[in-house]
Each structure stands twice: as structure tokens, then as C-alpha cells.
Please model this.
Amino acid sequence: MGTYVPNTVKEQQDMLNSMGYSKVEELFSNIPEEVRMKRPLDIPDGLSEMEVRRKLIQIAEKNKVFKSIFRGCGAYRHYIPSLVKQITSKEEFVTAYTPYQAEISQGTLQAIFEFQTMICELTGLDVANASVYDGATAAAEAVIMCRERKRKKAVISATVNLDITETIKTYCSGTDTEIVTVPEKQGRTDLEKLEEYAGEETSCILIQQPNYYGQLEDCDAVKKIADKNGAKFIMSCNPISLGILKTPGEYGADIAVGEGQPLGMPLAFGGPYLGFMAASESMMRKLPGRIVGETKDTKGRRAFVLTLQAREQHIRREKASSNICSNQALCALTASVCLSVMGKKGLEQAAALCISKAHYLAGRLCELEGYGLVYTGEFFHEFVTTCQGDARRVMEGLEQHGILGGYPLQGENSGNILWCATEMNSKEEMDELIKILQEVNG
Amino acid sequence: MELIFEKSKDKRGCDILPSCDVPVVEPDGKYLRRKELHLPRMSETDISRHYTELAGCTYGINNGFYPLGSCTMKYNPKVNEETANLPGFLNIHPLQTAHTVQGCLEVMKLAEEYLCEITGMDYMSLQPAAGAHGEFTGLKLIRAYHRDRKDDKRTKIIVPDSAHGTNPASAAMAGFSVINIPSTKEGYVDLEELRKAAGEDTAGFMLTNPNTVGLFDRNILEITKIIHDAGGLAYYDGANLNPIMGIARPADMGFDVVHLNLHKTFSTPHGGGGPGSGPVGCRAILEKYLPAPRIQKKEETNESIGRVKEFYGNFLVVVKALTYILTLGGDGLKKASENAVLNANYMMNQLKNTYPVPFEGPCMHEFVMSLEELKKETGISALDIAKVLLDYGIHPPTMYFPLIVHEALMLEPTETESRETMDRVIAIFKKVYEEAQTNPQGLWDSPKNTPVGRPDEVTAARNPILRYTF
Amino acid sequence: MKEFLFTKTHEWVQFLNETAARIGLTDYAQKELGDLVFVNLPEVGDEVTVKEEFADVESVKAVSCVYSPVTGTVKAVNEDLLDQPELINSDPYDAWFIEVDHISAKEELLSGEEYEQFIHEEE
Model:
């Protein structure tokens, strides 16, 4: 059995004796008999390191790793530069606690400060926090940031990923914020309906860009509607797309949030991922979570600290606007290293490759009988097509070829498929997919 | 230290991606970014060195003793990192069909099962991403339970004043109002105050047990009974689970819902602030409210509180925790708890004649020392002691928590420290106490050997600089 | 100069006339709180109520409520404090938080001497 207790049984006994005890049980004298466990834990005996590793390898082998992936829906396969894993495996970064003791945590603090800067650069906004759990909780926190006494309605587009909307609903269900969903029209937010739904009680309007179906939204029009009603404008963005797409800052958004997973994090069955949040200067003090600031030490040297802490739960307790008391520091570091290695050129290139590949794939799919684009607007790296036959069956058929096909949609889009292509999908691989689908179509 | 942006040089960079093998497509100009994007332009050598330098200014578990009370900074086993990095876990899309992710589901099912056994709970959800997220989720279950019973008058959560700040914050976020009750001077729940506070508007009560001064509340059955008799539910904050694995279970203490911190008790690393994992366990009466999606093949209930995040939680963190549980086994977990308690008592016994410990009797996995007297005598505060410890290469204990003890320093050595390490640290603590009497100025000037000295936090908060300006 | 009156929760009040007053924090309070880094103020038009909080002040590691000695309507807020909270530390009796009018109730207030006596006893 494995153990991480260094002291031998004899040393343990010596320590007990030195305190005047004879048995370790005596240290637990405060625990009443009635609540003591009377039997051993029903958990198998411990394993040696070799055994435990073998067991986990066996479990992992029960999963199927696909060589080609054409599925996104909030989790994207991108190339992860080699340096990312090397840096983020450094013990100091991996094992440190939250940087409460600034003097011995300058590494973590500076890395977060640099991350905040990069998120501001990506989104075109003024300030960013040290990150939150994921893109969905980032969106929920953003909606809560916009709460005002006289504005109780958050208006959310139906083209936002449903997982995000559901999370926002859970976060807001205990508060007096009401969630109103604006329907979609042709795969984009129905702007006429948005005009109708937005009013003086609207706290914010949330749009996803590119949206769940991959379509590019007319954010200028949304911003106008938000302004007209005095509502805040929140954009949920894909960080890779911001390499070339107009930034939330340029659209005049008040808050930008998003899922940072595409910046160097593996798919990992859904987590851990990274929620990023940026806002205009005027909303700085409403940002939840950790924020790192630059200052000087007693000798005038540059130093970084956790700052604006009086917003947070450990000080404000039940009056805090969020209960978050951590960030995804290691994931934020992952994103920073990824962005540093990619640089401006690399990020632009990744975004451009995503668009080009997705359009190639869409074009090729449309050559097939029964396949056609469902929406006609411009798209980034995801798009919806019809399907010849039962979409689920067809996608499952691809599995035996080592291909994870697009995602079979549900609801009104039932029978249609949401595809995704990134820089990871080569032309050869896409042609292969088409060939197999042709065979299936027979 | 220079920021990465200050090291950036025009035209430098790395070459990572291939050129495009399909016709190039660009979106309409109106969708394109015009704003300049500043990201580092650097060679891989320089980026690598930059982050290596940052790592050098970061104090991790392997740099030395890390007795941060209530944070359970135990050693993070390397085999956990290996198993979490298996390609069969890393490269799995969360929306693959069920039959292609049986390994992931097995990990989650085993983790759920073992965590249920350790806590005595009937069901577990691995969705919450951190302790505070777990609190929020657990409180939502309590809310859903009362609502489902049309018991809408239950709007209040009772929280002792010794609680972590997240407790009241989570309760407020989940839509409750908070009643703070004072604790006894030992940090125990004041039964009289609890009886007074509990009533027909009580939705629930949150407690950390062992409590935040490191003592097991021996009235625990009476406490949970008072809450249940009033019609409320009892919430267990799992921050301090480390000393009681295999010894006492929250369910047997009368708790109805718990959250755990896999990054504390179950040895997954803290990552400088995350990612963690904060599973929520509950009794059968609360099962139908658990967040969606669940692993079981059951139809999802309409009563579920809904989603609390994307997908299924911080999966890789769960892999690490499962690896730890499998390594230690049932008996090993109990031994870990026993040694956590033994180590804490050993340190407390060696230090209590120098630094007053305001509470009597054996502690559990951590203990609190009060420097109130020292501060009165010498002007040296808990903060000053913490800062001089940095010069000795020790991470300071938790400072100024719990709020009910003045000038508090809270030590949690954990079971993974050897006697020699503790003896060395005990000697340093005693030496520092003497320095406080003989050379207080030396302490005020500390730390001296760290990359930077005490930072000016007032200026940082008054005139926030939160990003680099290009 | 109009007379300053005080509360036991360490606010000062300066009546401008029968139904209007300025409110701030006492010198003793700012010393106890230390360097202030931010202040949350109500908006013009908000109602304030006797003995209920209307603002809070933040230091680096603490937040403290500020209570209203009167019931009335906020006529003006001192926006300078938002940019320079340090004014509360440097000149507490000039650093008013809000001006209230339509005052309909007030708590029992202490004179300067009584307040001195009160903080002396507190210590």
C-alpha cells in the first residue's frame, strides 16, 4: 500500500510518548463515541505506485481516442505548443497555494498580471480578472455584475450555448434577476425580437460571438439596442477568434467573457478549463474574483499583489457579490504561455486556418447528397448542415473509422449536425471524411 | 522583474503552425479586428527562461514547509500527475458518445463511490469546480428541497462567526439571508445561540467540523438535532475533512449535505489558486435536486437545480484524487488522518509554552496560536512573525483567521511532514519569538531575503494598475 | 462654521439648516480604520434611514459600514472621495460623504465634548 507519511511507526510512537499519550486514539478523545466509525472504510486496500498506474492505464484504455475530431460545441481541439506542458509542469507553479504571501509568490502573481494584460489585449477592454472556473460561470458572473436595483431582466440570445444559459439560470435563480431568452432567426439573434424584449428594466444583453452555431452576430446592432435601453452589453467570445475578429472593446461591449480552453488546454473530458473575464474601466470594482495589481515594495522595487480584495468574500462575507475564492491559476498560466509562444502572428494564423478549414469542410460536405448549410450567414469555425439519414447513426458510423464527426443537434435543429474544423484538421483528413460519408450515402 | 512584454522584440517569434493547405477564406471586413494586438514577440529560448525565472520566484510544496492552516497543503504525489496525463484522459472530447468514454465514466463512478463511503453520504456530484462552488451547489440543493415541499418561509441560513468567509457569501449568492451566531470562546457552536436562531424560517446551518480553530465539536449530534427539529438541513463544509477519514463521517454526525475539497484532503495540487474540485455529497432525500448532468442512465429529473458549469466538472482533478484514494486504500486514508492529527499535536505541544494556544486539550489537524499578548508587549504582530518566517524559507501559517481569535496564526503541518522538518521549524518559531523581544526592528524590516520586500498594498488598492500599458 | 454633532458609531453630522445636513466619518474612526482605499456611496435621490448603513469604506483588508444618523433623502454625494478616499484620512471633517435633505428623524446625537468622553470610555 502506498503512503506519503514519512514518519515510521516507531517515530510516531515516540512523538505520542513525548506528549504523554500511549495511543493515537487518545488524540481523538473529543469525538463522541456515537459518531465514531465502528468499521474500516469499505475502500479496497492500497496499491503500490506501479499497480495504481497500471490500473489507471487500464481504465484510460476503455476510452476511445479519435484521430480526427470535427466536433466543438464549447470544447475545441487545437494544437498545443510543446513549451506549454513543460512550463505548466514546473513544480512551483503546480503546487503553490493562492499567492497570499506576495513576497514569495511573485512568480504566480506576475504570471497572472501578464495573463490579465493578455486578456485585455485579446478583448480590447480595460481590465481583466485572474480567471474563474470556466466560460459558463464567467458568463453567469458577468450577468450578476450587471445587476442594478431597477433593472431585473437579463436578456440572453437563444444562439448562446445552452450550457452557458443553463448555468446563468442556476446562478440567478436565487436572486431577483429574471432571464429572458431572445429567439434566433436564421441561426443568428433575432434583432427585431431583441428590440422588443429589451427595455428600461433590462440589466444586460448577452451575445455569443461566434455563436453556438458558429455564425457571426451583428454585434454593432446589438450594441445600439443595449445603448438605447441603457443596458450593459456582454459578449461571450472564443479567444482564438479574437486573433482576427473585431474585439468586444471595438463593439463597445461593457464585459467580455469566454472559455479559455482553446488556449493550450486539452479536451480532458470537459475540464479543468478556464473562464476569462474582462470589463471596461467603469466596471472594474464589480469584477468578481482575484485581481492582481502592480505596486512597489519598501525599497521601491516593482512588486505584484492581490488587490481590490475588499470586494471579496473573505472580507465582505454575505455582502460580497460573488463567493469565488480561487481562480484557475494554472490554466491561466497555460493560456499565457500558449499566447506567448503563438504570438500575434501565430494567433492570427490559427484563427485564419480555422476559418479556411471550416469553409473547405463546409464546401465539401455540401457536395454530398442530403447535406447543405442550414444557415447562410458568415461563420468562423463551426457550421450546421443537414444530414442524409439519421444524424446520430451516421456520426456513430464514423466512429469505427477513428473519426469523431460533428455533433448531432437536438430540439428544433434535430437531424442537423454542428461541425467544427480547426488548424488540426488537414485537407487530407477532411477529404477522407467526405469519402467515408459518400460511401455511407451509397 | 521585467514583464514578458518588456522583453518582447519586433520580428521575433516562434514558428508553430503550418501554412494553409486549403483555399484561404476571410470573413467580411466589417467583422475584422482593427485594434492592434500586443502579444509577446519572443524566441522560445527567451519565453522558456522567462517562465523559469517566474517559477524561481514562486514557493511551492517542494520548496519547504507549508503549514497553511485550513488549506491542507500536503505533498502532491507525482503519480497523480502521471495518471492525469494519460492520453486516454487528455484527448477525450466531453461530447463523445457514452460507449467511447467508459473509462472516464468509470473514474467518476469510482470517485463518487469512494467519496460517498468516506463521508457516509448516499450520492455525490463531481461537478463543482472548487470548494466555494460546492458550497453554492449544496445550498441550492437545500433551497430546492424546501421549495419542493412548498416550505417557502425557509429563507435563512445560520452561520457561526468562526466560519470561512465563503459560507455566508455562498448562502447569499444562493438566495438566502444569513444569520451569524457567535461561537463560544473555544470556537464551539454556542448551543443557546443556535436554539435562539433556529426556527421555522431556518433553511439550514453551515458548519466546519473539526471547526476553524481545529477542534472537533463534541456537541455535534445535539447541533444537527437542533437544526433538524427546527425543520432545517445541516451543511458540512469539508475544508477540514483531513483529520477524520475513516474515523468519523459527516453523515453519522447528522449532516445532510457536504462539499469536499479534492485539492486539500485528496492531495491534488492547488496550482497557485486552482484548478481545484469541490464535489457535493448528499443524502437520498436531496438526490433528485443534484446538478445535471448525472452519470447514471436515469432520466434527468425536473427537480434538478440545473447546471452549475460546463460539462462534468474538473475531470483531470478527479483522476488525481482517485489515484490518491486507490494508492492509500481505506486503511491508508485512516492512517493519513491519524498522522495529520499526530503531527499537529506534536507541534502544538512543542510551541504552546512559547506561543499561547487559546484552547485546551488535543487539537485535530491544525491549531491556532494567539499573538495578542506578544503584540501588546513588543508591538510585534502576527503579520510581522509571518514575514520573518519567509526569511527562514518557511511558508507562514494562515494569518488572522479565524476572526474570533485576535492576532491569530493557524498551523496545519499535515501528515506528509517528517519529525525532523517539524523540529527544525519549531526551533525557528522559538528563535523568532526571542527576536521579537530583543530585536523587534529586525522583524519589522523583514523579509530581507525574498525577491521583493513587503509590498505597498494601500497604493495598489487606491490607484490600481491591473495591466501593462503598451 | 456650523457645529459638528456625533454618533456612537463614529459618524459626524453637520446641520446646514433644520432639515438638511452633511454626514462624514470622525477623526477617531479614520484612525481606527487605517489607510482607506475605497468608499461605496449611495446615489442622489436614495433614501437614508436613522441607524441604517448608507455607505461603506474599504481599507486593504477590511470593510466597515457607515450608518446614517438621520432619515432623509440624499441630495448630494461627495464624488471627490471616489477618486481620493485618502481625503477621509487626511481631513475627515472636510471629507463629507453625503448631504441629506428632507430630514424627518434623527438619532440622539452627542456634542463634541460628549463624544470625546465616549471614545475615552470606549478605550
About this structure: The interface with chain A takes residues 37-38, 58-63 of chain C (CB under 8 Å). Helices of chain C lie at 27-33, 80-83, 86-90, 112-122. The beta strands of chain C are 4-6, 11-17, 20-25, 36-40, 47-48, 53-59, 63-67, 70-77, 98-106.
